[in-house]
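COMPLEX REQUEST
Ligand: zinc ion
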Amino acid sequence: MSARDSQVKRMADLLREGATMLSQACPECKTPLFRLSSGEVVCPGCNKRVVFAKPSETERVASQSVVASSLEEVLIEKISELQSSLRMSKDVSEIERYAKVLSSLFELLEKVRGAKR
Ligand SMILES: [Zn+2]
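STATUS: Structure written out below.
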């Protein structure tokens, strides 16, 4: 299994556990960050917790990046839609399908973000 695959698997695991994907990416590895149901924010790429200085600042940065790229916004919207479906799903093959689509969406999101850098 490649590093990329295990990263996607971690993201899928996070979503299954009820974590929410945030619109901001990890400053170190550019992987989308996730907020756990406990309120903690983690990076599935670095596999560690990310601490923001101020939550209000986080929200402000998030809305700025949404304005910056509408494609990115659409991708994030689709990912959170899939996230809800994935959360409801109890069927293993269905979960697998969602994971595959999510994996492509994450890849595309990474490309969109890479193009902006
Ligand atoms: Zn990271």
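REMARKS: Residues 3-116 form one domain. The longest strand covers residues 20-25.
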